[in-house]
Amino acid sequence: MSMMIEAEGLSKTFRITKRRPGFLGGLRSVVDPEVRTVSAVRELNLQVKRGEMIGLVGPNGAGKSTTIKMLTGILMPSAGQLRVAGLLPVRQRRELAGRIGVVFGQRSQLWWDLPLQDSLQLLRHLYRVPEQRHQHNLGQLRKMLDLDEFMDTPVRQLSLGQRMRGDLAAALLHDPELLYLDEPTIGLDVVAKARIREFLLSLNAERGTTVLITTHDMDDIETLCPRMLIVDHGRKLYDGTVDTIRERFGGQRTLVAVLEANETVALSTLPMDEIGNSSLPDLPPGVRLQKIEGPRLELSFGRDTMPAHELVAWLGARYRLRDVTFLEPEIEAVIRRIYEENLLIEDSSIAV
Ligand SMILES: Nc1ncnc2c1ncn2[C@@H]1O[C@H](COP(=O)(O)OP(=O)(O)OP(=O)(O)O)[C@@H](O)[C@H]1O
């Protein structure tokens, strides 16, 4: 399968001139500027296959927008090799523009005062899409994104969710092979988010469009992206699946057991530990009783402590169980830990 994005040692540094405070300081900065360099992206290696959906995650200032700008050819890399859809983004920017689509959640490429219909017509001319192809694509997108009810409404009167659907149509009218989405679900309600996600999944399945998403919403990643890239301070911290990251860095899991009603008495008479919390006698090492609420109890245990089924068997041998579930740590918490502890995952065996 051929590659859609190939980056090797991709880097971008910005030179920033610092302005000294005060009037005299300002004058001095003109003759003797104090220059600082910021490494926005550092030696990024990235290979994305055609048809992949990949999430780019990182805190503010991590280098996500700078990466996207280099991938679209807006910014010239300071170092490294880069090819997108087989093209050199800066040198072949026009040609590349015809093969990619871009959607920014916080900005619109639609004309504010024009009805959506007219904006989409103007874009046809801008991208020089042949009439027949435009009609065909627009017909499909109208259906997939349910645009008909607001095609004649000026863009400024659209709800955020409707505008986002309009923006997606605008970015896809020229049939791009690669779609960049920057915070596509920001500010949307749950229903609108679900709708956008469903659309993106069917776009990927039906047209094979490669999708690269930057987002702070982990639900976007979990629903859409089998693969996730975590960046911080311009460096790649992780490249792999969401499941693997949970497994490697998820820490504790929680077993939630609901006991049969007549077992509640047994729970209410449990002994206390030295700090006054209830404790289950003979808990296997590494397993902790976290909470008891009526017939429901929660046990936390490390991934390496014991296999989950053994813990269920241990509990089942002592109490009659009505229901057992496992809670995985929220992916957000796992990623926060990776940023905070600055964990760099260099083990390439876990990268996809
Ligand atoms: N044009 C520029 N001139 C100078 N510094 C810049 C420029 N663009 C970005 N930077 C710096 O590069 C770093 C990375 O910024 P970037 O916008 O790529 O981060 P980001 O991950 O997209 O953040 P956010 O989630 O806030 O959008 C930051 O330190 C930022 O201040």
Which stretches are low in confidence, meaning pLDDT under 50 for 5 or more residues running?
Answer: 347-352
Number of separate strands: 13
The distinct ligands, each listed once, are:
adenosine-5'-triphosphate
> How many distinct helices?
12
The sequence of SSEs as H and E is EHEEHEHEHHHEHEHEEHEHEEHEH
In the residues, how many domains can be counted? 2
CATH class of the largest domain: Alpha Beta
Distance between the termini: 14 Å
Describe the fold and architecture.
The chain is an alpha/beta fold. It has 2 domains: 3-13 and 42-247, P-loop containing nucleotide triphosphate hydrolases (Rossmann fold, 3-Layer(aba) Sandwich); 251-327, Alpha-Beta Plaits (2-Layer Sandwich), CATH 3.30.70. The protein has 12 helices and 13 strands. The chain has helices at 22-31, 64-72, 93-97, 116-126, 131-145, 160-172, 190-207, 218-224, 242-249, 264-268, 308-316, 331-340, and strands spanning 3-18, 34-49, 53-57, 79-84, 100-104, 178-182, 210-214, 227-232, 235-241, 252-259, 287-293, 296-302, 321-327. The strands form 3 sheets. A 6-stranded mixed sheet has the order 5-6-7-3-8-9, with helices on both faces. A hairpin with a 2-residue loop joins β11 (287-293) and β12. α5 packs antiparallel against α6. The longest helix has 18 residues, at 190-207. It is globular. Residues 347-352 have low confidence and may be disordered. Residues 14, 16, 38, 40, 58, 60-66 line the site of adenosine-5'-triphosphate.
Task: List the SSEs and their pairings.
Elements: E1 3-18, H1 22-31, E2 34-49, E3 53-57, H2 64-72, E4 79-84, H3 93-97, E5 100-104, H4 116-126, H5 131-145, H6 160-172, E6 178-182, H7 190-207, E7 210-214, H8 218-224, E8 227-232, E9 235-241, H9 242-249, E10 252-259, H10 264-268, E11 287-293, E12 296-302, H11 308-316, E13 321-327, H12 331-340
Parallel strand pairs: 3-7, 3-8, 5-6, 6-7
Antiparallel strand pairs: 1-2, 1-4, 8-9, 10-12, 10-13, 11-12
The chain binds adenosine-5'-triphosphate.
Adenosine-5'-triphosphate binds next to β1, β2 and α2.
